Amino acid sequence: MILRPLSQTAVFGTQGRRQVDVGFYGRLSEVEAKCQISGDTVRASLDIVLAAERGASAKGDGVDLEYFVAVTGSDQSILSKKNFPIRINVPADARRAAVTDHIEEAIALGGRRPADVTINVGFQQSPEVVEFYKNFRGPTGR
């Protein structure tokens, strides 16, 4: 499941923290998950689609982003979390580009039922980005 509050991110191209200062926007577009249970372990195969869009202060031909995959229990406690860096190249003549990142994870259930765990995906955000999104919803307004 994509955590909607963490489904977008921004990388600032200049010192400010306004919309005109954004170099690139990142968006978690979709996640396709396939899970197999083997004993007390769930083997998850995830295909995560991430997109980057040029902002007003874009420089260069791409952006480095970082997203995470976290497993939570039925009480929303974090059982495990891993961060994944990703580079999205945006050609000079394009406004946006997307990539699919494939991840395979083994999730130890620790005696829990498979239905009691959730796989969550979101961008790892700095306090500046969190503050930015309190006032701005993203390049497409979604």
Structure description:
The chain has one helix at 127-135; strands at residues 8-12, 22-38, 41-54, 62-72, 78-89, 96-108, 118-123. With 142 residues, the protein is mainly β. The chain has one domain: Immunoglobulin-like (Sandwich), CATH 2.60.40. Strands 1-2-3-6 form a four-stranded antiparallel β-sheet. Strand 2 (22-38) and strand 3 form a beta hairpin.
The coarse overall form would be elongated
CATH superfamily: Immunoglobulins
Tell me about the largest β-sheet: 4 strands, antiparallel
Poorly predicted runs of 5 or more residues: none
Mind telling me which CATH architecture this is? Sandwich
Q: What's the CATH topology label?
A: Immunoglobulin-like
What is the topological layout?
Elements: E1 8-12, E2 22-38, E3 41-54, E4 62-72, E5 78-89, E6 96-108, E7 118-123, H1 127-135
Antiparallel strand pairs: 1-2, 2-3, 3-6, 4-5, 4-7
